[in-house]
Amino acid sequence: MIPEDTELIEPGPTPGRGPARQYLTIPESVTLQTPKEIAATITKDDWTEVSWAQGSKGILSGWFARQRVQVVKNVHERRVFDEVGWLLLQKEQPANEDSSIKAWICWGLDDSSLEELVSWAHIRWAIEQFHKESKEVLGADTYQGRTWKGLHHHLAVVMLAHAFIAEQRLLTESDGTGLESFKGVARRLTLEAATQRLIDRHRFSRAQAGEVAEDMLRGFSGWW
Fold first, then answer.
1. Which pLDDT score, from 0 to 100, does residue 74 have?
2. Is the Cβ–Cβ distance between 39 and 89 less than 8 Å?
3. pLDDT single digits (tens) 206-216
4. How far apart (Å, rounded) are the C-alpha atoms in residues 182 and 110?
5. What pLDDT was estimated at residue 78?
6. Where are the domains of the chain?
7. Among 71-75, 143-147, 160-164, where is mean pLDDT lowest?
8. CA separation (Å) from 44 to 16, 91, 120?
9. Nearest Cα to 213, choosing from 200, 197, 194?
10. How far apart are the first and last CA of the chain?
């Protein structure tokens, strides 16, 4: 990466033999930098503490800074992309010189505030968590049919199940102990469904139905 205001060499003839330069090129005198190296040049006063969400253990926050940069497209040829964007940097808590760095490139958001960039950057975690839970708990990646329609039906059911479990998970916060894991709520719902089936179809008592249902789920499925 290089700073936004770096003076670039325009396309045109080269000093030696060979074809004319076709692209904007970074001068040899300019040192290319990684996000971590750029973060090291930012003064302590330029880091800002920003909160982006309420988590299960309190407010989620971190120390952030941003800088306008151009991204190097080809290091060997010292070419850059045409776009200029924000390099958003985050230091892990507590913020000190040895803190590890997280970085995002933000295109097309020239007029956005630091707080907006932070909020959008951390939406990614929720998306990744959805895909992880859908695959590991709900079997989103286990469909073995061969039709487009069948795949979409499968994924629609998975998404509905995920929304239902997520809603039920939020209700576990009311006891003051925080949110139970997604997988934990899914297990409890599965156990309750199996227990109710034994009560309805075989007239078990609730205590007996719960014991048998848990034993069967543990022994013959990946429920636990």
1. 83
2. yes
3. 999 999 999 99
4. 37
5. 85
6. 2-110, 129-220
7. 71-75
8. 45, 11, 24
9. 194
10. 47
